[in-house]
Amino acid sequence: MAFIDNLKGLFWKGAEAKRARMLNGYVPIFSQFGQDIYASDVVQNCIHAIATEISKLQPRHIRTDGNGMQSTPNGALNRLFKFAPNELMTTREFLEKIVWLLYQNDNAFVFPVFDSTTGNDGQERRTYRAFYPLNPTRVEFLNDAAGVLLIKLYFNSGSDFTLRYSDIIHIRRKFGLNDMMGGGANGQPDNAALLKVLRINDAVLQGLEKGVKTSMSVRGILKIQTMTDTEGQRAEREKLERAIESGNSGIVALDLKGDYTPLVIDPKLIDKDTLGFLDSKILRWFSVSPPIISGDYTDEQYQAFYEKTLEPIVLGLGQAFSKTIFTQRELDVGNEIVFYGKDMMYLSTNAKLLLLKTAGEQGLLSDNQKLALIGYPPIQGGDRRTQSLNYMDTRLINAYQMAGKKKTTSKEEDEDG
C-alpha cells in the first residue's frame, strides 16, 4: 500500500542497533493485543461513543507569540489537517481510527511522512506530506551506537521497519507500569478484570437465549396408545399439529389412540437489575454513561463525559503531535498542534442562547459564528464582531471612578469655603 511504500524509504539506515535497556529490567519487545474484549457489544458501543466524539475534533497548527496572541499559519500542516491527513482517510476517519487503535492496544502509533532540509543556519526544516495511523503486531525498542532510541515495527505482512522513536507519534493510555508502552507491565492491555465481567455477561446472555429457545420448543408429550412405526408416529404428530392449528376454541379433539400431556416450561430468566449491574461495570471501565450510549444526554451529562473521558485524549493528542512534529526551536517560538472541539451542537437550545448572550455581549463571537451555533449559514459581512456597551475596560472604570471622586471632593471643598 502507499503508506508502506512511504515507510520503506525512511527506515533506519544507521549502524546495527541493539535492544534498549529499560529501568524495570524488562526486554522492550511488545506484542499487540488480540480482539478478545471486542466480542462484547457493550465494549464496542463504549469505544464507538468515544471515537465518534473525538472524530469531531479539528486539529490546527497554531503559533503563540510572546504577547500571548495566537495565529494560524498557512502551511502544509493545516492543509492536511483540514480535510485529509493522507490519501486513504478524511480527518474524521483518521481521528476515529487512532482512538480505536488506542483502546485496542492502549497504544497508538502515527507515522508522519515529511521532507527534511537543513537551512543555512543549520536548523532542520520539515515539510509534512501525510500522516498514517499504524497497527503493528509487535514493536521493539532499540539503541544505535550513538545511543539514539529507535523503534522497530513489525506488521502482519511480514515487513518490519526501524525508525527513530522521536519521528513516531506515540499516544499512550494507562501509561504507568511500563517504561515505554501504555497498558500493563508487559506493554499490552491489562484486560483481565474486564474479561472476567465479560465472561459472566456472556454466560448470562447465553442462558437467556437458551431459556427463550426452551420455552418455545417442547410444549407437550403425545402418547400413542398403539404400536406404530416411525412413519406412523410422524403421521400422528402431524395430525395433532393440524388439530391445534385449527382449534379456534382452544379444545383439541383426539381419538382413543392419542393421549396428549402438556408440559409446563418455566425458565428462570435473569432480572433486569443484574443485567444492568453487569452493563454498568463495563460502562464504568470505559467511563461512559448510559445516556451517552443512547444519545439521550443533558448538557451536564455530556460535560461530565468530556471532562472525565474525552479531555485527557484531546490533551494527549495535542501534546504527542506537537512533540513529534516540531523541533525544539519551533516549540520554543510557540508552535503547537491543538485539537479544537468548537462544534457545540450538542448543547440544548437554552444553553446555546445563554452562550450567545454571554460570548456575544463580550465580543468573543462574530456574527457568522453566532449563526453557525444555531444552525444557520453564514452571511456576507458576517465576520463583524459586536460588543455590548454595558461592558468597559477595568482601567477606564478606575479612571472614571477616580475622576468622579475628585469632582465630588472639589465640590465639597467649594461648599465648605
Please give a handful of descriptors for the protein shown:
single chain, alpha+beta, five-stranded antiparallel sheet, three-stranded antiparallel sheet, 13 helices, 18% strand, extended, Phage portal protein, Phage/GTA_portal
Output the helix-strand order.
HEEHEEHHEEEEEEHEHEHHHHEHHH
Low-pLDDT residue intervals, each spanning 5 or more residues: 22-27, 248-253
Number of domains: 2
Number of strands: 13
* Form type: extended
Percent strand: 15-25%
Number of helices: 13
Structural category: alpha+beta
Distance between the termini: 94 Å
Helix fraction bin: 40-55%
Q: Which whole number gives the mean pLDDT? A: 79
Radius of gyration: 33 Å
Major pleated sheet:
5 strands, antiparallel
Protein name: Phage portal protein
Organism: Paenibacillus aurantiacus
InterPro entries: Phage/GTA_portal
Tell me about this structure:
With 417 residues, the chain is an alpha+beta fold. The chain has two domains: 2-190 and 298-339, no CATH class; 345-407, no CATH class. The protein contains 13 helices and 13 strands. The strands form four sheets. Strands 1, 2, 7, 8 and 9 form a five-stranded antiparallel beta sheet that branches. The termini are far apart. This is Phage portal protein. It holds the Pfam family Phage_portal. InterPro entries: Phage/GTA_portal (IPR006944).
